[in-house]
Amino acid sequence: MLARPAYNLSIRFNRASLVPSQAKRMQITPSIFKAYDIRGVVPSTLNESVAEGLGKAFGTHALAQGQSTVAVGRDGRLSGPALSAALIRGLVAAGIQVIDIGLATTPMLYFAASTLCQSGIQVTGSHNPKDYNGFKMVLGGRAIYGDEIQLLRQMMESETWQLQGGGGVTHQDVLSDYTQRIVGDIRLARPMKIVIDSGNGIAGASAPGIFRALGCEVIELFSEVDGNFPNHHPDPSKPENLQDLIKALKTSGAELGLAFDGDGDRLGIVTQDGHNIYPDRQMQLFAQDVLSRVPGGTILFDVKCSQRLAPAIEAAGGKALMYKTGHSLIKAQMRAIEAAGGQAPLGGEMSGHIFFKERWYGFDDGTYAGCRLLEIVSKAPDANVVLNALPTSFSTPELNVACAEGEPFSVTRALQAQAASAFIAPAQVCDIDGLRVDWPDGFGLIRASNTTPVLVLRFEGQTPEALHRIEGEMLALLRSVKPDAQIQASAH
Fold it and tell me: By the 8 A CB rule, do 136 and 451 touch?
């Protein structure tokens, strides 16, 4: 059972007691308001005052949009209880009826905002270092991002929220309903033995039980929720965080390994022989499966994904659409396609966010994606044969270049400005999100992260020689703009 916060806010407020003080406005750090969520370091840029202010602003905005109920959840970070309590105070002050689901994965919060109400906020630092925390927000069934997040910032800075009172709090545990929904949807063709590494993130409190309910034999690594992350950082996109999983697969006789990030919305997959099946390869398998039931559907993927993905989607009868990185951005584009009369049954990002609209709700969910994967590969005698047969190239993982706050965006603008003269045919330049350059034998990408002050790089080649050439050309351009660029990870 997931624990509930040790507070009770099931009370009513009167308007007079909630008038904000004009004598001292809260201090806001604008940089915490990212493109598709809010992220900051606790307590220097993100604290209880900011959380309460967000609750007041979000509550005011929600009511203006006809949304009077908001679900709130939190991951296992140490600052989560205090920030969640402050956020709820702000929401209640604005007149919102809060459904507090307590400790939960971000997908469980999304589930609550899809089944109990239409809006929600998850208090989560996702994959960021342990001193970070933040907020992922859903309003009226859509993840908010961009200008709408800046609107909340402006309302917080000016304290122009409306505190009408009348709010309250109820507590609800959604794990049972969430588990039943998944188990009712997934059918494994045979039992499977797997290893699950939750990295001491919040998925450890729910994912192992869900996979057991499907009939899996589960070996658990680091399921205890601990915001200190004492074993390794919960980010399966980084190969160094998968080493314990690889070791466990070698000694346990398990067929596959699954890894989750800190808030449970991303999935990592490792084969028995220690190969990391990156999400763009996972997407090839997912697309083939989904398109067998939704022929002609549009499959979205972000700019970090392999050149191999689009041909695989098209070969399966789908339409391939490359788009910007960002969970809110991908979800918004999927909604836009469907609003225009199209079908967007699946989306995915290289970071491990997978969005199933077919048979699911369209939000990113590491546990559900892992279940869908097992459903597919359980039809074969050996899942490893299926996964290792997926088309691949020689590539790097996501590489990072540390920058000053705000610098990544100025660097990418400078790279985009130089790209036309730096690369000639057959190179194709794409600037929808940073700078991606595609050659017939591979691609290179440099973009600004929307969550931390780093540049994100990725390079791929169909041969080792192509990878080396492309990496060299892209890094030469980067260092012409940022001579002090230091790569923080190594190619595999």
Answer: no
Per the structure block, which two tokens stand in for 474?
């892209």
Contacts of 444 (CB under 8 A, 6+ apart): 436, 437, 457, 458, 459, 460, 470, 471, 473, 474
Residues 20 and 165 in one domain: yes
Asked if residue 399 and residue 320 are part of one domain, the reply reads no
Assign residue 337 the CATH number of its domain.
3.40.120.10
Q: How many C-beta atoms lie closer than 10 Å to residue 86's C-beta?
A: 20
Q: Is 51 exposed, middle or buried (0-12, 13-18, 19+ CB in 10 A)?
A: buried
Cα-atom radius of gyration of the chain, to the nearest Å? 22
Tell me the one-letter amino acid at 357. K
The predicted-structure confidence for 390-425, as pLDDT tens digits, reads as follows 999 999 878 999 999 889 999 999 999 999 899 999
Q: What percent of the chain has pLDDT over 70?
A: 94
| 416-461 confidence digits (pLDDT tens) | 999 989 999 999 999 999 999 999 999 999 999 887 789 999 999 9
Average pLDDT over residues 251-277: 97
Residues 69 and 20 reside in one and the same domain: yes
CATH number of the domain within which 472 lies: 3.30.310.50
Average pLDDT of the residues in 459-473: 97
One domain for residues 382 and 465: no
Contact 448, 411 (CB under 8 A): yes
Domain count, the chain: 4
Instruction: Give the Cα separation of 142 and 67 in Å (integer).
Output: 12
The secondary structure of 13-57 as a DSSP string is: --GGGGPPPSSSPPP--GGGB-SSSEEEETTTT--HHHHHHHHHH
Residue 24 belongs to what domain range? 15-173
CA angle 158, 168, 162 (to 5 degrees): 20
Read off the pLDDT of each residue in 91-107 and give the average, rounded to a whole number.
98
- Give yes or no for residue 220 having a pLDDT over 50: yes
Please indicate, yes or no, if residue 43 is contained in any of the structural domains: yes
Same domain, 184 and 159: no
Asked if the bond preceding 239 is cis, omega within 30° of 0, the reply is no
pLDDT tens across 129-168, in order?
999 999 999 999 999 999 999 999 999 999 999 999 999 9
Of 451, 359, 467, residue with least CA distance to 405: 451
pLDDT (0 to 100) of residue 68? 98
Q: Which residues contact 282 (CB under 8 A, 6 or more apart)?
A: 267, 269, 348, 354, 369, 373
Residues taking part in catalysis: 126
Count of beta carbons in the 10 Å neighbourhood of residue 488:
13
DSSP secondary structure letter of residue 429: E
Q: How far apart are CA 197 and CA 191, in angstroms?
A: 19
Task: Report the distance separating Cα 69 and Cα 119, nearest Å.
Answer: 7
Q: What is the reported pLDDT for 3?
A: 40
Cβ-based neighbour number of residue 73 at 10 Å? 31
